[in-house]
Specification:
Layout (H helix, E strand, L loop, with lengths): L1 H61 L6 H16 L3 H22 L3 H4 L2 H36 L3 H8 L24
Helix pairs in contact: 1-2, 1-3, 1-5, 1-6, 2-3
């Protein structure tokens, strides 16, 4: 009788330990998943702020850059792509298009000294440039969180719990091919 009680206590202890351990793994995966979501939301906030600044920047540039309509339209089109983005992957692509269009806009603006001298343009350029830097920082944090998630869902035993949860790998934010190209500098006049 004493042996069966001991065996029952040991069995209950093993089952209880397994449940607690699985709960810990599950909770850790939930925390990692939400960390990815939080980091993405932080990027999204900055993308929205940049999105809101673009019409002001385009409006200031219009009067001075009458011959650069294509550049201004590229910024506007990229902004519209971001507005229409339904998934994080689409938002990433639209954000890259905005960054590329802004690089082009600021490069073209170098040819317009009177525009560069306008205080509103200078303020908007600084604001957008600051937002670009903050977005780059947040991308790094998102990639760290996404990488942590991706590693956890591939490791045993987390892999089995992640499969039960329906956990899928997160795509890392990669540089746009245009970001890898050499910057073409031109001197006005």
């Amino acid at each position: 009788m004493g042996l069966s009680i001991l065996a029952t206590v040991v069995a209950v202890g093993v089952v209880l330990a397994a449940v607690v351990w699985l709960g810990g793994v599950y909770n850790g995966l939930v925390a990692a998943k939400h960390e990815c979501d939080r980091e993405w939301a932080n990027i999204d906030v900055l993308l929205k702020q940049r999105h809101d600044e673009l019409p002001k920047l385009v409006e200031v540039c219009k009067g001075y850059m009458a011959h650069e309509r294509q550049t201004l339209e590229a910024v506007t089109a990229a902004r519209e792509r971001y507005s229409a983005a339904q998934t994080p992957a689409e938002a990433v692509q639209a954000s890259s298009a905005i960054s590329s269009a802004l690089r082009q806009l600021f490069a073209v603006a170098e040819n317009y000294p009177q525009l560069r001298a306008v205080e509103v343009f200078q303020q908007l350029e600084r604001r957008v440039s600051d937002l670009e830097a903050q977005i780059a920082d947040r991308r790094e944090l998102y990639n760290a969180a996404a990488n942590g998630w991706n590693v956890r869902i591939e490791q045993v035993p987390d892999r089995f719990v992640a499969a039960f949860m329906g956990g899928q790998p997160r795509e890392l934010w990669k540089a746009d091919p245009a970001d890898r190209e050499d910057v073409k500098l031109g001197l006005a006049g």
